[in-house]
Each structure stands twice: as C-alpha cells, then as structure tokens.
## 1
Amino acid sequence: QTVVTQEPSFSVSPGGTVTLTCGLTSGSVSTRYYTSWYQQTPGQAPRTLIYSTNSRSSGVPDRFSGSILGNKAALTITGAQADDESDYYCVLYMGSGVWVFGGGTKVTVL
Amino acid sequence: QVQLQESGPGLLKPSETLSLTCVVSGGTISTYYWTWIRQAPGKGLQWLGYIYFIGTTDYDPSLKGRISMSVDTSKNQFSLRLTSVTAADTAIYYCARGRVGRDGNTLVYYFDHWGQGTLVTVSS
C-alpha cells in the first residue's frame, strides 16, 4: 500500500524560510505525480496553493513555491509570515483517477 | 465564482447510511471530477473518491463496497453515499472540484475549489 510521507511539524522564524517535503514509502516522487499542496488553518476548508508540482494557484503569494528536491516533492515558504502558521498537505496523483494525501505538516511561525 | 456547498444529516447511528449532497453554483458541473474528501477530528485529509460528470467513478480502495457517488447534472449537484457507518466514519466531509487534463501547456490533476465542509458524527 502506497503511503505518502510528510514531516509532522516544522517551526520557522518570521521572515525565515522553510521547506516541507512530500515523499513515498516506496519509490521517488517525480513530476509525473503532479503534486499539489494545500494550506489549512483550524476550522477552515483547505486552500489550494500549488498544483502540478510548481504552478501557483490564483492569488497565492509568490513566497510559496513548489519543486522536486531529490526524490521528494517540496513546498518552500520564503519570508514566512505569521498567517502562514497552518497545516500543509500534499497530494499525489497516483494515476487511474486515484489521489493520495500525505499526513500533513504543522507549521509554526515563532 | 464557483462555490460548493455540502448538506446532509449531521448525526447518524452506527450501521446507518451516510448521504451527503454537494451543490455547485457559479459554474457548470460538466467536464470536472467531483470529489469527496474527509477529515476525522484532529487527523489529516483522506481522499474518498470522485465522480466524473458523465458518471464514471473511482473510490478509495479501503471504502470499496460501502461507498457510492452519483451526479445530477440537471441540478448541478453530486452526492456521496456511505453505508454501514461506524464511529470511524465521524469526520468533516468536504466536496471539491477536481481539475484533470490540460490547462494551457500544463497537465493538471488537483482540487481547485472546496466546499466549507460538513461535520458528520456517528454515535449511538
């Protein structure tokens, strides 16, 4: 069974940079998984940040960027702000109409 | 602006059937992959499955046998049905629009619009 892995938590200072990753328990994440990233604050629905590995969704600030780093997909927040404190989820498209979410990363800005 | 709104019973007893509807406004239900995603209390997001506007479906294998989805293009809405619920099915259920295919020069497979979610609690 495919499991999508994410770091449970990260802490970043205001103005700092943090890179979250999204991997597979078996195999490497490449662009063919069309990784998307979502931000969720408590009590709110997820918000789409990144799709197709590195395309920003409409209205998303350019301090959010997506990439492939080694064998994982990555979401980088450059110049973190207080309201970036959220949970972040990656989703991989596994093909044949199936998506799998990662477990999420809780980002604290302090 | 596309908006999605879930509705359905918020409280079920074990063994009952969960039925939720998502109404799509501000856009057509055609050509998209209409998706259900849930989040158990304090947990992460789980993709449940999708229904394409022509009725094609695919589901999370862990739910196969209990889950089904339907679409009503005349009402611009789609639905989720989950049978034999247990406490483990207690969650916020989100509907979302899945974009699949070519967007300009890019191939896309992601969820671009989400409903606000509806809490379903399973308890005796």
## 2
Amino acid sequence: QGQLVESGGGVVQPGRSLRLSCAASGFNLNNYAAHWLRQGPGGGLDWVAAIEHDAENEYYADSVKGRFYISRDDSKNTLFLQMNSLRPEDTAVYYCATDPLNDLFEYWGQGALVIVSS
Amino acid sequence: DIQMTQSPSSLPASLGDRVTITCRASQSIDTYLNWYQQKPGKAPKLLIYGAFNLHSGVPSRFSGSGSGSDFTLTISSLQPEDFATYYCQQSYDKPLTFGGGTRVEIK
C-alpha cells in the first residue's frame, strides 16, 4: 500500500529557511500531480503549492509566492517544499498530497510541524 | 478567489442520526467540489470528489449532492467512527480553497 512521509519540519527563526521533503513509497509519485497544504493553529486548511506530474508547471498561493518553491525528484520518488523568508504566520502542520486528476487531494502524508518563532 | 462557506460549524448528533452538512461557493463551480474527513491529530481523508463520487473504500452511508454553488454532504446513519471534522474544497480554480469545517460531535 502506498505511503507518503514528510520530514524536515522543526522550529526556525523568522527570516530563516527550511526544506520539507515528502517521500513516496509503494507507488510512483511521478504518475501524479502533487500539492503542499498547511493547517495553522486555528485549524483551517490552506492550499500552499502544486506541481504537475511532469513538473511542467508550478502554482502557488499568493501568501507564499516568491518565498516558497515546490519541486520534485522522480529518481528519489520525493516531493520538496523550499520555504524561505519564513514568517510567524507560516507556523502550521504541512501536508503533502497526491492529485490523480484536477486539483483534488487523494492521499496525504502524516504532516510535518513547522514553528516559526524567535 | 472562490470563498467556500460551510454550515453549520458545529453539529451535535447521535448515533444513527441522518446528518447533512452544507457548503456554498461564492460563485458557480459546476461539480468541482470535494469533501474530506479529518480526525484529531490525523491528516484529512478524501471522501467524495466531483460533488457526488464516492472515493474508494468510503462507506456507502456517505453521499454528496449539488452543483453550481450549493452542495451537501449527507451521512445516512451516523456511526461512532464518523465523529470528526468535515471540510469541503473547490477544485474549479486556483487558488484551491476550503470551507471552514464542520465538526460533528456527540450530542
């Protein structure tokens, strides 16, 4: 059975960077588009970024555009989120998710907690 | 951006109850509407996609309906494992957006 496992979360100071990874096992991640989402302390779900299955296009929420970058390494069956210039409001649990068709989130990782605080 | 509004935000219910959750989009989204279930400390799980299509492995007591801007998620007979928070999400246009969630709790 397929699985997604996030790593790379932690506590970071404002203005610093962090890179999240999402390793897929049991299936080929390159058959899917993929997304990063987050859930802040208030509990709401927010979409962060998406990448097409062939990495041809990337898409970002306005709140992270120019600071966060999504990428994938199909040789490692892994999705990444490079987060730069982090702000306290980026504090959240970050999830990766697969997308079999048209911007829905079929399978999710367990989440990685990112805390941005001085 | 397309705003998604769920109601109610909290829904006390008993085992065996028929439960209905409503989701309204700020514009027409055809049937590009998906529903997720989330339990505390866990990632959300896809329940329904395309407004009414049951995701693999989801019990048939869950159903979805609607098109345009008004949608509903119905649980025909509430089971113990159904106490959770439910979110709608539009996949019509980016940015992809979610409703605020409906917490189904024990009455």
## 3
Amino acid sequence: SQTIHQWPATLVQPVGSPLSLECTVEGTSNPNLYWYRQAAGRGLQLLFYSVGIGQISSEVPQNLSASRPQDRQFILSSKKLLLSDSGFYLCAWSGGAHEQYFGPGTRLTVT
Amino acid sequence: GENVEQHPSTLSVQEGDSAVIKCTYSDSASNYFPWYKQELGKGPQLIIDIRSNVGEKKDQRIAVTLNKTAKHFSLHITETQPEDSAVYFCAASISNYQLIWGAGTKLIIKP
C-alpha cells in the first residue's frame, strides 16, 4: 500500500532563516505531488504541484520554491522566511485519477 | 475564476442526528467531487468521493449527492457520533491534476 511521509512534524524558525521541508511517497511510481499551506482555522491553499521529475508548477508567487529531485521526493524551500510563512504545510500525492492523499503535515512557526 | 462555496462554516448537531454540508461549484467541466475530513493537527483524509456520471454514493453512515444541473453537491452524515467532530472540506476538479477547495465546515457533535 502507499504511504506518504513528511518531516519534520514541527519546526520553529526565526525570520530570515532558510527552510527545507521534505515529503516522500512509498508504494507508487510517477505520482503527482502537491504542496499546500493551511493557515490556522482556514482552508487549503495550493502552493506547487508536480507531474514528474523536474516539472514544477507554481500557483502562488511568494518566497517559497519547490523541487522534485527524485520520482517520489518533493521538497519545499525558502531562502529567507517571513512571519507570514507560518502555517501548516501539507504534502499530497495523486495517482493521476484525481484522488489526492495527504501526509501528516508540518507545523511551521516563524518567530 | 473557478471557485467552490461551502456552507455552513460551522455546524452543531446533537449526537445521533444527521448533518448535511453543501457545496456549490462554478466550473461546468468539473467531473470529480471529493470530501475530506480533517481532525485537529492532522492531514485531511479522503472519506468519500463522487464522479459526474453518478447522482449519489453511500458508504455506511456517509453519503454524497450530486446535482450537475444545479452545480452543487452535498455530504450527508447520519447517526452522528462524537468521532465525527472535525473539519470537513469539499473540492471539485478543475483539471487533470488540480482540485479547487471549499473553505471548510467545522462539525461539532453535541453529546
């Protein structure tokens, strides 16, 4: 069966510091991969999605970037965090039939 | 642009009663409509979905109905239990890869 992992689970970072969040999927090949952000008590905002290695589509212009160095690995990065980057970051995968399956999330607090 | 409206934002029901959450979508090309349940501090979990060639789908106490003419779909939970308390999100497909999300409904089950 398929499993999706995210780490770290929680992260507290100062403003201006770099960020790297990692997501990996097991048990499937060539998944579509997604990064979402969720502000406290709010809905899901799609940040990036990828349909293959090296193929990244950005939905929201901001100081975040994403990379997909391997088929089942998706990384979210920032060179300099802002206070507004705080939130719950969710990675999801899809097998191409629309259904998206989410990881456990990373709670990021920028101080 | 495309959007999904979800109502109500908060729903409080007595344990054992039924709960209904409604969503309206704008893109007539949407053909996939999932519902997710998100418990506090966790990633959303797919609980039921429906495709445009079906009007209703049931899974034990949960059902989803779709009216393509009116462009709305609903989640029905019968015999509600305390563990049904969570935030529920609806979504609609807008391409082969993307979903557009409702803002969420906080469901509270009163004992």
